[in-house]
Amino acid sequence: MNRRELLKLLGQTSGGLIAASVLGGCQAKSMNLLFSLDPAEALPDHLITPIDEFYVQSYALPSQVNVEKWQLKIGGEVNTPVTLNFQDILNAPQEEFYLTMECIGNPAGGNLIGNAKWTGTPLLPFLKQAGVKKSAIEFAMKGADWYETTLPVAELMRPEVRLVHQMNGTPLTAAHGYPVRIIIPGHFGQKQPKWIVGIDAIAKTKTGFWENQGWSNTAEIPTHSLMRQVHDSRVWNKQHQVKLTRDNWEKGVLLAGVALDRSTAITSIQISTDDGVTWQAAEQNRPESPHEWTLWRYLWKPTQAGKYSLLARASSERQQQAIEDKNSKDGSSGILKIQTTLDA
Q: pLDDT tens across 134-154, in order?
């Protein structure tokens, strides 16, 4: 049964409500506060998102894959097609690495982002084994759920592209791509199929499902920061108004969050408490990989009660984050303004 047949069947069930539910894109999960309220504690080297809090991107129903029967076929414009089973993945050299995943539909300040420690093996040796022909210009990647997307050949032949089978030290869950998904640093989750079963080298350009809905065909992550915490309140795009009593703010208010870029280190995080008129530097950590989010915090010391608009912007070695981003189809890089009221 192909995807069209599946959706037709679902459309005949419960008045089509089930079919609508499986096309929901990315789904947010609840998330705890980032940091201790004690600014004397050092920023952690890594902040891991628990699997049950990690957002899920859905294209269709999560695939239930039998690991004993699972295969990944590398074909198309190659000299020698390669078929891999799960044991082939486990037998290959293993790497552990931190990487932050984000949904391309994550709005400014949104919750559709998470960081994990992944375990897997580089894809490149398998592509070299197959022998990619010069006629190939893209790879078409396909999941067991019939989801398909493409990227240029050079993007998948980077050594940091991996086939992963563990997330935070445990096997991938069905929702996150068990038994194997592909990780392609620098791109939104849209370009990283779960339950991957096919990688075909193709000689003509092709667009996938979300790209045909108007989403970016490159899906590269822009330089951006997200505020996540104001004192002891969790903030995001659907919870961006905070009210603090004098007892909470007169000794200082901890602001904290994360920042990310597709390929280069975050060089600075700046905080504004006056709606962007002035900016101050925040403290940040320095992850080894640009593909893991940067953690930051700032101790705000307001001197009087009132209403404030709080902003956080990131700068990387490539660019500085803009306050507004009107094109949401290539991933939002705009700044969410946190409206904060300090009681007298």
A: 999 999 999 999 999 999 999
